[in-house]
Each structure stands twice: as C-alpha cells, then as structure tokens.
Here is the input.
Amino acid sequence: MTAIASAPQVPAAPAAGRPFSELPLPPRMQATLEQLEYLTMTPIQAASLPIALAGHDLIAQAKTGSGKTAAFGLALLGKLNPRRFAVQALVLCPTRELADQVTQEIRRLARFEDNIKILALCGGTTMRPQMASLEHGAHVVVGTPGRIMDHLERGSLKLDELNTLVLDEADRMLDMGFYDAIAAVARQCPRQRQTLLFSATFPEGIARLAEQFLSKPQEVKLLEQHEDSKIRQRWYEVKHEERLQAVCTLLKHYRPVSTLAFCNTKQQCRALLEMLQAQGFHALTLNGDLEQRERDQVLIQFANRSCSVLVATDVAARGLDIAQLEAVINVDVTPDPEVHIHRIGRTGRADQDGWALSLCSPGDRRRVAAIAGMTGSEPEWHGLGSLQGGDDSPLVPPMVTLQILGGRKEKIRPGDVLGALTGEAGFTREQVGKITVTDQYTYVAVARDIAHEAVRKLAAGKVKGRTVKARILAE
Ligand code: ADP
Ligand code: MG
Here is the structure.
C-alpha cells in the first residue's frame, strides 16, 4: 500500500483539450495523430502521457472509452527500436475482444513506422500459428494473461528485451481471477522496465499488484468516480441429464434481463433453445446456418433487450460485444480454461455487476479444477436445490423489436424514427430503446406495453416525410 499512498497525485484537468504538440513526441508520430484526427488529448492522455513519456511507472484510473490505448500506446511506441526484432512491449488485457481492439489501435498509432510488428496472443485459438508468428519476431505483444503465460512456459515468447509492461483494465483482470497469471508474467519481465497500470476502480488487489510490480509509481486519477464492476461467479453441481432444466431454474431465480448461454456443441444449443422456448422464455440462437440478415436480427433483438437469452457456441459468439449483459451461463463447462475466462468476461462490464453461472456435472470436475488452477481462485459451489420455489412468473424481456421497411438506402436515420415516435405518436423518450438502421430495414426497440400501439401509429404516421410499413419482429 505504501507505494501508492506515498505517490504524488496528479489531478487531471477535467476538460483537457490540450494539443499533442505539447508532448515530446517525434514529428512522424505527431503527423500520425493529425491523420487520425486526434486533435487534442483526452483527459487521461493529458494526465498520463507526460509521466509515461518521462519514463515513470504509472497507476492511472480511467474508465472505458477514455482513450487509454493511446495513453500507453504512444508511450511504448516512443521507446521502440524497430531494428531490434525482439518483444519490447507487452500489454495484458482481460479479454480477447479488448486485446483485439488494443492491437488495432496501436497498429493505427504505429502507422508512421511501417515495419513495426504488433501481435495479438489470446486464447480460444490454437497455439501453433501464434508460435509461428512469434518466430518471425514481434515488437509489441498484446494478449490475455493466461495465453501469454502459456507461451512463456513453452518458451515461444521471450521477454528479455522488454522495456514496457502495460496492465490494461487491471481491475477487470482481477475480477476474472488473473492475479496469479499477471504475477507470473510480471516476474518474467526484466527488472529494468517501465510498468503502466490502468484501472477503472481500485479494489484491494490493485494495490497489491502495484506494490509488487511497480516501482515508485505516480498516480493519476480522473475526478469522475465509477462504481465497482464485478463478475460474481457461482458453480452449480448438476446431473448431466438435468443440465437443460437447470438453465431454466437459474433464469427464473436470477431473472437477468439479458443472458448469454454458452454450450459446447451446436446440438446442445439446439436442445437448449427448444427447451427454453417450450417453457416460454424469449430465447434465440446464433449458428453458422443463419443468413446474414437473420444473424443481424438475432443480434439486434438481443442487444436491444427484446430477447432474454441468446444461446451460442464459442465460435458463434466470436466478436460479439454486448454492452449490458447481466449474466453468462455456462451450460457446459469448456475444456479450455481460457475460453471459460473469455466467456465470463462478457458480463460485469463498465459499472454493472454480472453473474457468471456454470453448470457442472461430475464428469466436468477436472475441467473446473483446470479453470481454478489457471485463475488461482477457489470455485464457489452452490446447490440448485436452494433455488427452487422462487418467483414463478415468466421472465419477459422489457422491450419488443419493431421492424420498419426502409433503412440506409432510404436515408433513414435513428433520429427520424425517434422523432416519429416521440413527436406525433406521442410516446416518451423512455419508451423508445435502441434504434438500429441496416441497409433495407430499421429496427427500433420499444417498451413491451406500447408495442402494438407503436406499430399502429408508425403505420398511420410518417417517417422522414413518408409512410412506412412496420411490424413486430417477434414478441
Ligand atoms: P479505452 O481503452 O480507454 O476504453 P480507447 O483507447 O479504446 O479507450 O479509445 C476510445 C476511442 O477514442 C477510440 O475510438 C480512439 O480511437 C478514440 N481516441 C482516443 N484518443 C483520442 C483523441 N485524443 N482524440 C480523438 N479520439 C481519440
Ligand atoms: Mg481499452
């Protein structure tokens, strides 16, 4: 704790608006920033870049979307020697999606040098191609702690020449049980290095991490405060044949608005979907057999809260990024611990709590042990029996999706639809949810109790000066 308590606090100006030209960055980097239309620094960039560029260790409090990637990206790129084909910077991120985003952003920032190689190393894909890429050499590696540890153990990744270690979204990594993995990776980095830690919140584990792995860190905090985000993980022991029914029991007990249910196989997805729909849940599934438009419609209904449960395999859910997800249910335990971590990392985002509920039959015990081993956390066991006899009313999503014939091709914008519903039709802003415009159709979520009236009024009125056809997509 002392490392943090004694560190000077640099309060960030709330509205930074300061130009990047204030920073000691090479002209080519300045040019890239101009090209990207990064005209002024975001507050976290203005607060942390001077410290990071001066070579200090840093603890920065910053929420999602605040521009952290450039804050550490510019710092680590500034120190790279492109002619040395060795990993000089490592960024640890909680999930594959975040690692991919960071990789892309650093690639954009590195445009000024065309021979800088930035490699993403995450779980969920096979090791072999990653090992081949590593053999060709990379300057920057971005990855999830578990997979990075795997590469270190196999000797395919060497960190002897590393000079910058970044812990991005450190609190989320801790929520996901990555403390030991982070510690193991940090121990393999040279002592002489710069460590930059970014976190939206400061739970106790962050202080421990900082104390162990940062040296005389300076701390920057944005004035805005954020709630803790937390993934609450529970394991339920079930007999294999009770699995599908157990999902219904969990949904009725926890009553999450949006749940992503992971199965290991397509057959299991199909079986679960049938069971859920038969029991009156609003459930949909994603699979490779869907046409693009059908896939879009499933994702739209799930993201706008008019579908309670999305059933998917890991492959089908790849790249899926849903902002508000109250629960992830692992219908089957995955054999790959890192996949488990990716699955549960989709809930508990930003300022919200999230449930990660996993069903485990006796045959899955080894898999659970592997997950516990990797995350260094003790599984919390619960019995389904404690859930029975709860609220038996059906779980109904709060919204309904309306489909309007006409989209981008007709130059419809979300504002046109919102205007039609809140103007003449007389609905309130709160009764209208997410509006998604695709090429041919526009989808709008409305509160369930006004769905029929909204369709009638949309059909009777005008959107963008024209009469439109609208229907309820599914109820
Ligand atoms: P975080 O990691 O804090 O969630 P990101 O680094 O992903 O945030 O940045 C969020 C978005 O803001 C990205 O689209 C990024 O390209 C953009 N961005 C970052 N810095 C600036 C800047 N100085 N000016 C304009 N846009 C920026
Ligand atoms: Mg980020």
Observations:
- The domain at 231-387 is CATH 3.40.50.300 (Rossmann fold).
- Confidence is low (pLDDT under 50) at residues 1-16, 224-229.
